[in-house]
Amino acid sequence: MTHRLICVPGSVAPAAQRYRPLVEAVGGVAEAHLKDLEVYRDSAPPADYSIEDEVEAIDRFADARGLDRFHLVGYSGGGFVALAYAGTRPGRVISLGLFEPARIPGDLTDEERAFFAALEAKLSGLQGPEFMAAFVQEQVKPGVQVPPPPTSASPEMQKRPAGIAALIRAFGEYRFDRDLLRACPFPVYYAYGDLSHEEQAMKAGILARLFTDIRVQRFAGIHHFVPPEQIYTADQVESLLDLWRRGEAGSAPQLSL
After folding, report:
1. Domain 3-256 - what CATH class?
2. Which sequence spans correspond to the domains of the chain?
3. Alpha-carbon distance 241 to 231, whole Å?
């Protein structure tokens, strides 16, 4: 059986770049459809941009490709979108694979609220390269050295600061009941790196209490901004293949941390 999946990237790298190693690794057994974020469709985010725009665009994207049901893969900001989609359209999702989602939709816990308030305060008033540098550094543990953010003068990279700011606003404005995730019948996989900010482990714990069938995997020496080939290694690819097989087999719920 060929696994049919939709992959949604984060707010920095486009889907073709983010998922290239995964597509190459599973090309013989999976049909991967790469869906870029709607926030970057035009030269600047629409004034009324919302997460509903992203969710509805996945519906249109899937319909245009004849995908009634599919595996959904999300990274960072695309992980938030994937969670929103999975919770509101569970009948279309066979499985959900996440790497370090930017945030979990719905009402925040006190711990989440403190982290995101601090992030927004540190980004407030910054623009261009200064915004990108602060945004990147805040996603990893203190002391972790990250490569400088992309400085390409291409039109696509010039969209990133405004797009990231629009995404952060849209995350906060999106209304979502986290209890929807408790009713999701498909298996979920959550991966994160041990060099990423502790909020990734926090979010993994929250999702482990919401989903009935979830596997959480932590990778050593990895953080949010390593090259994609360091994320989609043989270990993670095999975990995703197992997720897709279990989703298609309708596996019994199991929880592991």
Report:
1. alpha beta
2. 3-256
3. 15
Contact status, residue 160 vs residue 76, Cβ threshold 8 Å: no
Do residues 222 and 230 make contact, with C-beta atoms less than 8 angstroms apart?
A: yes
Pairing of β 214-219 and β 70-75? unpaired
* Residue 46 Rama label (left phi>0; alpha psi -120 to 50; beta): beta
Q: What is the mean pLDDT of the chain?
A: 91
Q: Is 118 helix (H, G, I), strand (E, B) or coil?
A: helix
Give tens-digit pLDDT for 157-206. Answer: 788 889 999 999 999 999 999 999 999 999 999 999 999 999 999 999 99
Q: Which residue has the tokens 């293949």?
A: 241
SS3 track for 27-46? CCCEEEEECCCHHHCCCCCC
Q: Write the CB contacts of 53 (distance below 8 Å, at least 6 apart in sequence).
A: 38, 39, 46
Q: Measured between alpha carbons, how far is 248 from 240 in angstroms, rounded to an integer?
A: 12
Amino acid at 144: V
In the block, which residue shows the tokens 């960072």? 76
Query: Contact 218/194 with Cβ under 8 angstroms?
Result: yes
Picking from 72, 73, 112, the residue whose alpha carbon sits closest to that of residue 92 is: 72
CA angle 173, 55, 25 (to 5 degrees): 120
What pLDDT was estimated at residue 119? Answer: 83
Rounded to a whole number of angstroms, the distance between the first and last alpha carbons of the chain is 29
Q: pLDDT band at residue 115, thresholds of 50, 70 and 90?
A: confident
Nearest to 189 by CA among 146, 144, 138, 231: 231
